[in-house]
From TrEMBL:
Pfam families for this protein: adh_short
Protein name: SDR family oxidoreductase
Family per similarity comment: Belongs to the short-chain dehydrogenases/reductases (SDR) family.
CDD domains found in the cross-reference section: SDR_c (cd05233)
Alphabetical keyword list: Oxidoreductase
Gene Ontology molecular function terms on file: oxidoreductase activity
Entry keyword annotation includes Oxidoreductase: yes
Gene3D superfamilies attached to this UniProt entry: NAD(P)-binding Rossmann-like Domain
Amino acid sequence: MAEATTNRYALITGATSGIGYELAKLFAEDGYNLIIVARTQEDLQQKAQEFSQQYGVNIVPVAKDLIGENAAFELYDEVKAKNLTVDVLVNDAGQGQYGLFVESDIHRLLDIIHLNINSLTVLTHLFLKEMVARNEGKILQLASIASQLPGPYQAVYHATKAYVLSFTEALVSELKDSAVTVTALQPGATDTDFFNKAEMQESKILDSKLSDPVQVAKDGYEALMSGDDKVISGFKNKMMVGMSNLMPESTVANQMKKMQEPKDKNK
């Protein structure tokens, strides 16, 4: 059992499931105390107990739905009220919604934009200011290979991830003369609860082999600790992005449309 040997804290949003959960375990294994953020108090308490017992680190659970308009500011204020310094910020929380754009609920899409873009931007801004002042810190942003591929049937989700990647690449340049690093993790379709939340059960993409969240988290963690700008997780995903760079955007979009369309589309 690892024990926290320092007062280092990693704040991880979306920490109770999927990639965020696997990242939380990696940080705890390395002796980081954790500030874990998720929507459900019950899930947080369960994971807090698990991490604390298994790794012997301090766990601070914070129940917060980051879709809320001021939720990211509230999260920051709660962390500061506890006099905690965030050494690593992991912006993992994110959602999508499956379906044609014109048939989708615009309010649901706006919630996704707020979560994937607004809250991520607020948390990055507030904690990055502190990191720059200390000239120390790391941020891991959950982008996606979707950030480089137009996504019919997930138009808004892909667009939000394009923002995350572009935002991260700009910060990397702005911070190049400091000791603070920002890393974008770009997984492909991964075996998490994302597809259920996005109501994607009928998408053809689920017929393909999904990435293992354990491996995705490992790739992201290693890239973060190495100070890399970004990492595409998985050889297949690297190939997909590489090939897409050689094709017209319209061709890439049409290929993604075929991959993500409903399974019964041609029946």
